[in-house]
Design brief:
Blueprint: H1 2-9, H2 11-24, E1 41-46, E2 51-59, E3 63-68, E4 73-77, E5 81-86, E6 92-93, E7 96-97, E8 121-126, E9 130-136, E10 141-148, E11 154-163, E12 168-178, E13 187-198, E14 203-215, E15 218-232, E16 237-247, E17 253-265, E18 269-289, E19 294-303, E20 307-315
Antiparallel strand pairs: 1-2, 1-5, 2-3, 3-4, 6-7, 8-9, 8-20, 9-10, 10-11, 11-12, 12-13, 13-14, 14-15, 15-16, 16-17, 17-18, 18-19, 18-20
């Protein structure tokens, strides 16, 4: 607790975290800002990948005559329609039809508690160097693998997710991690619990867990706290942010901060573009006290320059 309180004494870091939380937390009445479609509005998905939101004016065996949400009259041949369904408020942002976020599972690093649909998954390429995949075997359970093209690091993930309330989900996850294959006795991992409040498009997540690095006779532990969120700001863009706290043995603390946008490219792909920065409380000096006959250590906060992040995700 002393380490946490010492961090929040630094006003500029406290202000950053406060801004992050306020950006992601949204009141329930905010949905009133979305333009509500009329009850008769239907969403048509066509063979060329186009989607049209419209009310039906007339129908026969071969076609629909519709009035689109843009106010234009159009004719849609039935052989061009793959699927159709009744529209709802979440299909629109600022009155424009959107593709819903198909990747609720993860932010930049931390996962959400929202489940993947059974039989679906995704493949992503962070920095185009590593490869991350996840697949849902049931409505609650999914597994995934993250690795590079040389097979290290290698992370095996398993997660069980459940719905607690109307817009609140919880999940329990575990990671098995290998940084290399030269030390067969070393074992890294993490176990954590996650709670997400909100919808796929707008949500806030708190995750808490414990990480460990195991070697025979030498095991190190670290506590992990993650604050993450996403907010849809336009038909194709979502603002996404993350703040990851790692409390290692002793007073050392690492804080990874990330922020940027997620860009939807149709129904199958998204791009994540952002900036990462690292803030650490490091040992800067150690002295031997001759009076107490013990070592005394001095720590200070060190911030690294931000670096860019890019990732493409494709729905399987």
């Amino acid at each position: 607790m002393n380490q946490i309180m010492e961090f929040f004494i630094h006003k500029k870091y406290f202000a950053y975290l406060s801004f992050l939380i306020l950006m992601f937390y949204y009141p329930k009445h905010s949905i009133a800002q979305v333009y509500t479609p009329i009850d008769s509005l239907i969403i048509f998905e066509l063979t060329n990948g186009q989607r049209i939101a419209a009310s039906v004016l007339n129908e026969d065996e071969r076609k629909f005559v519709v009035l689109t949400s843009r106010g234009t009259k159009d004719t849609i041949a039935k052989y061009r329609i793959i699927a159709q369904r009744t529209a709802n408020k979440s299909d629109f942002v600022n009155g424009k039809l959107i593709f819903k976020n198909e990747y609720p599972y993860t932010y930049y690093i931390s996962p959400s508690a929202l489940p993947l649909k059974k039989g679906t998954g995704y493949l992503s390429l962070p920095f185009f160097f590593s490869c991350k995949s996840q697949y849902a075997f049931t409505e609650h359970f999914s597994m995934g693998i993250t690795t590079s093209f040389v097979l290290f690091p290698f992370i095996l993930n398993a997660r069980y997710s459940m719905k607690l309330f109307k817009d609140v989900h919880a999940a329990i996850s575990g990671d098995f991690f290998k940084s290399d294959w030269y030390n067969p006795t070393e074992l890294n991992g993490a176990i954590y619990a996650t709670v997400t409040k909100g919808s796929i498009e707008n949500n806030f997540t708190i995750s808490m867990g414990k990480g460990f690095v195991y070697n025979p006779g030498n095991t190190k532990h670290s506590e992990i706290i993650s604050l993450s969120g996403i907010k849809r700001i336009s038909p194709k863009k979502s603002f996404m942010g993350e703040c990851l706290f790692m409390f290692r043995d002793g007073p050392a603390i690492s804080i990874l901060r990330a922020g940027g946008i997620r860009v939807s490219r149709g129904k199958k792909a998204t791009w994540d573009i952002g900036l990462f920065s690292l803030l650490e409380k490091r040992l800067v000096q150690g002295e031997f006290n001759k009076i107490t006959k013990s070592w005394e250590y001095n720590y200070r906060w060190v911030s690294q320059n931000p670096w860019p992040y890019i990732n493409i995700t494709y729905r399987l």
